[in-house]
């Protein structure tokens, strides 16, 4: 069966959920092989095998952590040249997209970014689906040249296990001069709270300018915690310094596709919509009945978020007890 | 030193954008402007010069005739000159075709630093800076929120989804900046007037020695099969806050099994 390469996204060896989604999609096209860069492959191999990776290529070289993006390009391009896969899948995100673009250029391949779904076409080659123009259009496309290189957005599919015992292959990459040109001087991990990650969460509760202050975000967090949700924010709230940029939802922030998106004190500007319009269910709380966010909402409450949200928490807790 | 800022003329993102019948972005249907995300790159170029680095700033765009408007807008903010690459055969290019043309024009002009925005507001692929660096054979220091250029290097800060990373590369390099790198200035009246007199060179593919087969629709490496407007989300139930516990919202969330 055709080999499909999947670039693994991991944090110190802990495989992140989007990678499991990629492995699940890859099985529609052929037999997935994972490409694992950096230390920690031991524990990861088991997880990758559980989601159907028949093979794990491991590149445990210091270059991968000491330099930006290009070591991954060398690794992936060299493995692809030798393995001759039927497709290469990577997680969408700044690093994944850059890696994908460079790999495609080196392999003289075509590239599709930000796919939200992949299926096998009539000839078995991948057909992608993308949401474009702030998610107002749905586009299907295919690659016409070389090995298809595709980046996939988080939440494109639900990860499904298909356990196998993977063959682990250590791979020595011959790093070219471009691999070591952009040095990582320091890396400060961001503090990870107990809440789910924005891109991976089933529910996202977001606050905007209407939250009106950093300390008021506690109101949003309360709702998030009672629903087991991640916290998001509009750019207006982030620019005001009320919440960290890593939580920004939208065109220049994170694009989420959760089961439920609850927007409070957010007007629904096109750039914000670009990051949340594909949510399954949208709920809005806004004191302006004409706010554009209501056009998208499956359920909307016209009112003051400082009244509506605490009451919602109370009501949910009452229903649960 | 030579700074080249790549800018794109894009359909207004707040307008209703559509596709042409052959599946490319229909640029004729709405007003276009300088991509807002490229304004941040223009701003950083100007700040580098203002910080005392001796440099000449040139804007570069690839696009149809009216793409000149994006160059004039950038020149009105500041900077010295502009290059417009325009050719019938470029129409329909993907990121590979576009980056080939940009790289050709950059090499012809000469460069120490190429500045780009983090993505275009229409294509949103975010891959042109990396492709340019790959083609030009120079470092790509991308997605910077903060940068300094000194002693032949560019150093900056970038936010990955799990960490803050400080990175450094030697010039010549390609750099992209995010919308958090610093607010872009508005052109002054004087700036707008001055822009009209600044040199603007127009080039075509022959000037760059680029084979027409490698760009446009023929050179594109992917093809759109279908483009359909997503069914508009149907507006749901909108209720006034009832002030008595918003049982309606809680009931909705319970019915959808979120509670
Ligand atoms: C290139 C570019 C990229 C951008 N990228 C992004 C992006 O990634 N993400 C993003 O979010 N934006 C982005 N923006 C900005 C976007 O255009 C909007 O400015 C921003 O989304 C507005 O945020 P907001 O809805 O919180 O604020 P506003 O538009 O000011 O809306 C605030 C809302 O809160 C309501 N409100 C106020 N008080 C209360 C209350 N007590 N109770 C209930 N409701 C209340 C108001 O009625 C109003 O509707 C981008 C813009 C540009 C140009």
From TrEMBL, chain A:
Residue ranges occupied by any Electron transfer flavoprotein alpha/beta-subunit N-terminal domain in the UniProt entry: 4-184
Alphabetized SMART domains for the sequence: ETF
Pfam families xref list: ETF, ETF_alpha
Key words of the record: Electron transport, FAD, Flavoprotein, Transport
Cofactor(s) annotated in UniProt: FAD
Gene3D superfamilies for the chain: HUPs, TPP-binding domain
Family from the record: Belongs to the ETF alpha-subunit/FixB family.
Task performed by this protein: The electron transfer flavoprotein serves as a specific electron acceptor for other dehydrogenases. It transfers the electrons to the main respiratory chain via ETF-ubiquinone oxidoreductase (ETF dehydrogenase).
Subunit structure: Heterodimer of an alpha and a beta subunit.
Protein name: Electron transfer flavoprotein alpha subunit
UniProtKB/TrEMBL annotation, chain B:
UniProt-recorded name of the protein: Electron transfer flavoprotein subunit beta
Domain Electron transfer flavoprotein alpha/beta-subunit N-terminal: residue ranges: 22-212
SMART domains: ETF (SM00893)
Lineage of producing organism: Bacteria, Bacillati, Actinomycetota, Actinomycetes, Kitasatosporales
Entry keyword set: Electron transport, Transport
Organism of origin: Streptomyces pseudovenezuelae
Cofactor: FAD
InterPro entries, per database record: ETF_a/b_N (IPR014730), ETF_b (IPR012255), ETF_beta_N (IPR033948), Rossmann-like_a/b/a_fold (IPR014729)
Stretches assigned to coiled coil: none
Biological role: The electron transfer flavoprotein serves as a specific electron acceptor for other dehydrogenases. It transfers the electrons to the main respiratory chain via ETF-ubiquinone oxidoreductase (ETF dehydrogenase).
């Amino acid at each position: 069966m055709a080999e499909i390469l999947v670039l693994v996204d991991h944090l110190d060896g802990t495989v992140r959920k989007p990678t499991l989604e990629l492995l699940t999609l890859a099985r529609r096209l052929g037999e997935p092989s994972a490409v694992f860069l950096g230390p920690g492959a031991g524990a990861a191999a088991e997880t990758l095998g559980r989601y159907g990776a028949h093979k794990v290529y491991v590149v445990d070289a210091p270059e991968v952590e000491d330099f930006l993006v290009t070591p991954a390009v060398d690794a992936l391009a060299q493995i692809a040249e030798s393995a001759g896969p039927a497709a290469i899948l990577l997680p969408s995100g700044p690093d994944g997209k850059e890696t994908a673009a460079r790999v495609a250029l080196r392999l003289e391949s075509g590239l599709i970014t930000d796919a939200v779904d992949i299926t096998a076409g009539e000839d078995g080659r991948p057909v992608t689906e993308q949401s474009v123009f702030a998610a107002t259009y749905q586009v299907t496309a295919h690659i016409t040249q070389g090995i298809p290189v595709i980046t996939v957005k988080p939440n494109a599919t639900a990860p499904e296990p298909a356990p196998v015992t993977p063959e682990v292959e250590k791979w020595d990459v011959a790093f070219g001069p471009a691999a070591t040109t952009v040095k990582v001087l320091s890396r400060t991990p961001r503090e990870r709270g107990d809440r789910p990650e924005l891109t991976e969460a089933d529910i996202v509760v977001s606050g905007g300018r209407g939250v009106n202050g950093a300390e008021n975000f506690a109101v949003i967090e309360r709702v998030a915690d009672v629903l087991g949700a991640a916290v998001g924010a509009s750019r207006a709230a982030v620019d005001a310094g009320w919440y960290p940029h890593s939580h920004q939802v939208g065109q220049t922030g994170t694009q989420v596709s959760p089961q439920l998106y609850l927007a409070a004190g957010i007007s629904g500007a096109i750039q914000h919509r670009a990051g949340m319009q594909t949510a399954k269910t949208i709920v809005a709380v806004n004191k302006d009945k004409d706010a554009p966010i209501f056009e998208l909402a499956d359920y909307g409450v016209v009112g003051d978020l400082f009244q509506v949200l605490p009451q919602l928490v109370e009501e949910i807790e009452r229903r649960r007890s | 030193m030579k700074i080249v800022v790549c800018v794109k003329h894009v359909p207004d993102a707040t307008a209703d954008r559509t596709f042409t019948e052959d599946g490319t972005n229909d640029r004729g249907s709405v007003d276009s402007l300088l991509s807002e995300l490229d304004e941040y790159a223009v701003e950083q170029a100007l700040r580098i010069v203002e910080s005392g680095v001796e440099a000449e700033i040139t804007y570069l765009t690839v696009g149809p005739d009216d793409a000149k408007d994006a160059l004039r807008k950038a020149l009105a903010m500041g900077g010295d000159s502009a290059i417009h690459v325009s050719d019938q055969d470029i129409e329909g290019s993907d990121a590979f075709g576009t980056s080939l043309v940009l790289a050709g024009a950059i090499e012809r002009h000469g460069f120490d630093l190429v500045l780009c925005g983090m993505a275009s507001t229409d294509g949103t692929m975010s891959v042109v800076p990396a492709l340019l660096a790959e083609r030009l054979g120079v470092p790509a220091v991308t997605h910077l929120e903060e940068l300094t250029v000194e002693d032949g290097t560019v150093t900056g800060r970038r936010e990955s989804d799990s960490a803050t990373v400080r990175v450094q590369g030697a010039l010549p390099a390609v750099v992209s900046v995010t919308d958090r790198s610093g607010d872009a200035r508005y052109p002054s009246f004087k700036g707008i007037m001055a822009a009209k007199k600044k040199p603007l060179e127009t080039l075509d593919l022959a000037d760059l020695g680029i084979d027409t087969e490698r760009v446009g629709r023929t050179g594109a490496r992917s093809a759109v099969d279908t483009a359909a407007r997503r069914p508009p989300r149907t507006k749901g139930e909108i209720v006034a806050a009832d002030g008595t516990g918003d049982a309606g919202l809680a009931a909705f969330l319970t019915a959808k099994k979120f509670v």
